Amino acid sequence: MTSARPRLPRAMLAVGLSATLLLSMLATVNASSHREAPLIAEDPVADNTDVYAFVSPDAPDTVTLISNWIPLQVPAGGPNFYNFGEDVLYQVHIDNDGDAVADITYEWRFRTEIANPDTFLYATGPIESLDDPDFNLRQTYTLAEISDGVRTVLGQNLPVPPNNVGPRSTPDYEALADAAIVELEGGYKSFAGQRDEAFQVDLGSIFDLGGLRPLNEAHIVPLPAEDGVDATAGLNVHSVVLQVPTAELTRGGSGYDPVIGVWSTTDRRRSRVFAGGNGAMPVHNGPFVQISRLGMPLVNEVVIPLGIKDTFNAIRPDQDAAALSQPDGSIPLLQDPELGRLIELLYSPTGIDVPDAGRTDLITIYLTGIPDLNQPRDLSQPGEMIRLNTSIMPTESDPNEQNRLGLLGGDLDGFPNGRRLIDDTVDISLQVVAGNTPLTPEFQREPNSLLGDGVDFNDKPLLTSFPYIPHPHSGYDYTPPVSSDS
Questions:
Q1: Is residue 96 domain-resident?
Q2: What Å distances lie between residue 475 and 28, 176, 480, CA to CA?
Q3: pLDDT tens, 67-111?
Q4: Which residues pair with 160 in a beta bridge?
Q5: How far is it, in rounded angstroms, from Cα 338 to Cα 79?
Q6: Among positive and negative, which fits the CA dihedral 120, 478, 455, 472?
Q7: Measured between alpha carbons, how far is 331 from 329 in angstroms, rounded to an integer?
Q8: How many domains does the chain have?
Q9: pLDDT score of 396 more than 70
Q10: Does residue 293 fall inside a structural domain?
Q11: Looking at the domain assignment, is residue 483 inside a domain?
Q12: Are 408 and 431 within 8 A, CB to CB?
């Protein structure tokens, strides 16, 4: 006869269960925008997943901007493999004067061509070059810059490499992908295509009532402690990567400021009309409308409540303070975040506590930037975005050698000053919400500093040169996480 497990007090259990949905979204704390709001969860081609902005480690006079879409791709997902949307406007925005309004916008528009419509095959033979006739379904893109209201085309008919199908269809995949790196006039480099899902997170545990496997024994529903499991290992995304001379991004002249703000958005046409059963494609009409937005990881996922998640995806950063503030000017979502209270509840056996209501540290980190680090000199409007001080040089030329805890680990060039591919924003964000930063020194201690999911590094090493994100996983080599013996 087994003894019954002690039951939680009803009030604690009720709070814990009501928190399940929100805490489960920690699975996206840097899968950052994977299915973060109800509407965008139904539109993966338009779903921003991660935004990165960092001083290029091997070219420190440039900044690399990365934005990912189409989350959690199974590499073997054919015969209709993943592609950017032709009817989608992909954008990355730069604010360089502190008013939370885009001063520079880069936009990507994609075009799809089918060489042979009479076959179901993505590749009709080995693809040996980007113009190989066996590359049956291919995409190209136009890259443009909008600055001071003037739109300038930086490149047209730029190539997108194929998906990494396998050794028969894409026998030398790395060469194909490298051939899609283009150098543009003015010192720009560009790449757009499939890449490895270069962040790590234990989705399975965090989806299970906010569990962190290394701290399982301390959870209010305890389990044996164990190593974290990288749930995104082996999966891919689609990325746009742009390397820009720093001088093109920062405000020049007497108003020079090395700090820039970065976020990305996705727009669709206002209406889409389906033609019915005659085989015609849908018709898209009207102006573009913003439907997805991403800057700092964690904000829409575990700070913004369900009732306004879709609204948050549709507004601009300069509208954030008004949208999130109460009539008295307070911002409870950041000054007394629900996530902080849930951390206290779920890991109460450790004795953890977090800053009290009325805290201002998260407003600094997420809306204004940190003074003397990455706060704009002439800040006039708070807004949620990644803020990067472009004058702080990379700590290491090899991104794999940088400290995964970013600023918390002593790297001034690391998250939340910008965001590098190595930065473990799951662990960093959990510790920040728990107050483990110099902004709240009394909470900069254990057990707050121990919060983390136990998945510390990506499953593939980062590249040491542009576009830095590892090559995507092959469909042929993909191994499902659960196999059947039947």
A1: yes
A2: 24, 16, 11
A3: 999 999 999 999 999 999 999 999 999 999 999 999 999 999 999
A4: 139
A5: 43
A6: negative
A7: 7
A8: 1
A9: yes
A10: yes
A11: no
A12: yes
